[in-house]
Amino acid sequence: MSVSPTRGVEYSLLWRLLIMMGATDIDNRDGILAIDDELELLDVVRKSLDLAGFKVHTASTAQDGIELYEKNWKNIKVVLLDYVMPEMTEDLIFECLKRQNPDVRAILLTGCEDHVANPMFQEGLFGYMHKPFFVEDLIHQVQQAIDSV
Fold first, then answer.
1. What's the farthest any 2 CA atoms get from each other in the chain?
2. What torsion do the CA atoms of 118, 121, 123, 126 make, to the nearest 10 degrees?
3. Which domain holds residue 125?
4. Quick one: which of 2, 3, 62, 79 could link to 106 by a disulfide (CB 3.0–4.6 Å)?
């Protein structure tokens, strides 16, 4: 994964400036849920998307992610979903999310080949990102998913 320290500082300063100017409401930010068993990745995703102005929820297990989504789905605009989770496959997690909200916007994050996402695209998957990815690309794809609603 590539992270630019300078870019992070730019986002941080911009976000703080927007808050000080009253240009954004912290409690009214678009919610993102990231489900991944890689804690380091979750931390980078959370910090990067938070600095970009999103309210980020994280879960390191499939069950925690499903429960968090069931409780907060009305405030979560996009779900970032790891392809390989220890206790449940990504397609089952996606199915559980869709039961709660058939219009869920999910982006699959994986180190696997592109073709693994094809069956999920047929079920309504919004996007796919191959790990490692650039934070700027993640932010762009998340914003595209939000704008598509």
1. 45
2. 160
3. 5-147
4. 79
Task: Write the CB contacts of 113 (distance below 8 Å, at least 6 apart in sequence).
Answer: none
Q: What CATH code is carried by the domain that includes residue 76?
A: 3.40.50.2300
Structural domain total, the chain: 1
For 10-51, write each residue's pLDDT tens digit: 545 555 555 554 444 445 679 999 999 999 999 999 999 999
For the CA atoms of the chain, what is the radius of gyration? Answer: 15
* Of 46, 69, 54, the residue nearest 15 (C-alpha): 54
Q: pTM for the whole thing?
A: 0.80
